[in-house]
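User: Show me a protein chain along with its predicted structure.
Assistant: Here is one chain, sequence first, then structure tokens.
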Amino acid sequence: MSATTNRAGRWWTPHAWLDGRWQDDVLLVSDSGGRWVTVQAGVPCPPDAQRLAGPVLPGLVNAHSHAFQRAFAGLSERREHAGDDFWSWRDRMYRVAGAVTPDDVQAIAAHLYRELLAGGYTHVCEFHYLQHQPDGTPHTDPLAMSHALKAAAEDAGIGLTLLPVLYERAGFAQPALRQDQRRFHLDADGVWRAHQALAAQSHATFNAGVAVHSLRAAAPASIHRLAHLTHGMDGPVHLHVAEQTAEVEDCLTATGRRPIEWLATEGLLDPRWQLVHATHTVPAEIEAVARAGSAAVICPSTEANLGDGLADLPGWLDAGVGLAIGSDSHVTRCWPEELRWMEYGQRLLHRKRNVAAAPDQGQPATAARLWQLALDAGGRAAGQASWGLRVGARADLLVIDTADAALVGVPGDHRLDALVFSSPGRPWRDVMVAGRWVGEADTAGRFADVMQRLWSSPSGGQDRVR
């Protein structure tokens, strides 16, 4: 990919995805602030515009990320005991969380963010709960970990929404954190202070919201306190919810209500709220989310990897709820695979094809429907007032390589179908973020050094972090 520091520019492409469909002969003009000022179809290529080398898609938001977990991807795929589930995976993951430094996190995140750019994401929402030193004491700079993530995004060239996380207890019946969770601690006022400090640094490719780890990890009074503090805040509010059946059962025992039911009846939901996973729901909860204008963030590859279960995709679609996607633990790092898994899980469950298609609504293409949902909802999840190839939105785009093996010979109106459901490949010729072409960067060396330190014992045997 080429690189330039010039944000203002004029580009032309024979085909671009505008307003939910492919349109021809599109002129794209960005200003010096990295936002679109002209997006116009049906325009012959002006002599002063750069002709792009392929069709153009908007960049997609990765709406849920734990960057440090990239160092764990592929390293928990063995079962050495009678059982293995989300909770045993979580205990192993905590050992990585307890071992990494701010420098490690920056190296891991920079490498991950480059991979996300190569996977078609131009912005990432970082659900950030790795706050303190391993013993729970703050770093000299209390935002050292946040600044490491911000620097990693700047190194990689990706946009970032940073979400400091309310995290204060180990479970509904456990009022304190476990020893291996001490570095996660942040109360409602601490989250708000972190948000305020980070929001003051906002620019075209960086902003901040807040998050609640989960209902099990935050007391009701603290969640309400954070809701009070963030009243009127423009940024998003993210929350893990109903990912595991055990969480739903524990919530029922503790509160008499299911997790999303509790949020709704407590009057917390509004259009800023992004419900991550939302795997185990009932129709009344989906209806409550739709009424509140909140959205869901589905992470299909991680939910499959952890054995979480399958979200009620038809229910969410029928209710008209926004559906963003995220790669969460980063076992995969490209949006076509997330959308593929979102649909394929439903096909296996319902033993039908093209479950997400809606021909009665003029949306017969499964990939196009899921893509447009993820595009629109992803912008909201990142706290962006506008997203995509439209005036006022950030000037992000993906140039498709039609010579990629998965796309050769594919008719133009089936490009999205092939991107999602044909063989994986490397379909992007170029990636633009805020009017800048993202150049190559060597992040692998530092990442490899961190992996060597985390995973290699002096004898070359078992994992050091075990």
